[in-house]
């Protein structure tokens, strides 16, 4: 599968963003590089935007329930969610349920399949002394959460790295073929060159515009 042409630049939303949610991946945390980089940028340039980057529980059902509760009073038209890897899957679940915009970074598209091999005790990336148990029923929870279709692909921007060593970039690209796609040659699953792509993310959310 050849890499699709980059999507045309997205027009900034008419309503300024007021709330932004960031979701980390499997075994990750709010201490991930991308999460901290986004938090620092938001604090420096958009402190008026409500920023939330929670530590997600191992249970997908509990994770999504907590996110829905935490965003229950957020305005749908001026909120957005950014998610990486498994967080990208959760971001898709939220975008489909809430109708908000979403930015996906190397998003998991079949997490029930891919995470079945991780059933058992796991360690957290950012604290090897922290352990959690990924239970078999969590795979069923992921399967139950999986959105059948993306109802409004235009509200998504997906960053997909061809050098992803964890997920198949072709599968990710096929799943998000109707979305705004940013196919990145090389890079890796963590998108270690995140800073190079941050301007595109900010532009999609309208955060690059000067405040009045």
CATH superfamily: Alpha/Beta hydrolase fold, catalytic domain
Q: SSE order in H/E notation?
A: EHEHEHEHEEHEHEH
* Percent range of helical residues: 25-40%
Q: What separation lies between the terminal Cα atoms? A: 44 Å
The assigned structural class equals: alpha/beta
Number of helical regions: 7
Shape type: globular
**CATH fold category name:** Rossmann fold
CATH first level: which class? Alpha Beta
Strand content: 15-25%
Q: What's the quick description here?
A:
This protein is an alpha/beta fold and 212 residues long. The chain is 33% helix and 20% strand. Strands 2-1-3-4-7-8 form a 6-stranded parallel β-sheet, sandwiched between helices. It has a two-stranded antiparallel sheet with strand order 5-6.
Please provide a written account of the structure.
The protein is an alpha/beta fold. It has a single domain, classed as Rossmann fold (3-Layer(aba) Sandwich). It has seven helices and eight strands; from the N terminus they run E-H-E-H-E-H-E-H-E-E-H-E-H-E-H. The strands form two sheets. The chain has a six-stranded parallel β-sheet, with helices on both faces. It has a two-stranded antiparallel sheet with strand order 5-6. The radius of gyration is 16 Å and the shape is globular. The N and C termini lie far apart (44 Å). The model is unreliable at 1-13 (pLDDT under 50).
Short descriptors:
Rossmann fold; alpha/beta; 212 residues
Fold blueprint:
Layout: E1 19-23, H1 33-45, E2 50-52, H2 60-70, E3 79-84, H3 86-98, E4 101-105, H4 111-115, E5 120-124, E6 127-134, H5 136-145, E7 156-161, H6 169-175, E8 180-184, H7 194-204
Parallel strand pairs: 1-2, 1-3, 3-4, 4-7, 7-8
Antiparallel strand pairs: 5-6
């Amino acid at each position: 599968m050849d890499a699709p042409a980059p999507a045309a630049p997205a027009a900034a939303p008419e309503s300024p963003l007021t709330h932004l949610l960031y979701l980390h991946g499997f075994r990750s945390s709010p201490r991930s590089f991308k999460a901290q980089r986004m938090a620092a940028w938001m604090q420096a340039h958009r402190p008026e935007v409500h920023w939330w980057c929670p530590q997600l529980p191992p249970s997908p059902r509990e994770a999504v329930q907590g996110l829905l509760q935490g965003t229950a009073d957020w305005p749908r038209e001026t909120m957005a969610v950014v998610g990486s890897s498994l967080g990208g899957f959760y971001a898709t679940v939220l975008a489909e349920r809430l109708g908000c915009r979403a930015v996906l970074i190397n998003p998991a598209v079949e997490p029930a399949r891919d995470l079945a091999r991780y059933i058992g005790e796991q360690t957290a990336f950012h604290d090897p002394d922290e352990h959690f148990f990924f239970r078999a029923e969590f795979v069923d929870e992921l399967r139950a959460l999986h959105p059948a279709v993306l109802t409004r692909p235009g509200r998504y921007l997906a960053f997909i790295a061809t050098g992803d060593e964890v997920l198949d970039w072709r599968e990710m690209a096929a799943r998000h073929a109707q979305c705004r796609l940013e196919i990145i040659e090389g890079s890796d699953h963590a998108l270690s060159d995140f800073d190079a792509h941050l301007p595109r993310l900010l532009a999609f959310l309208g955060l690059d515009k000067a405040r009045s």
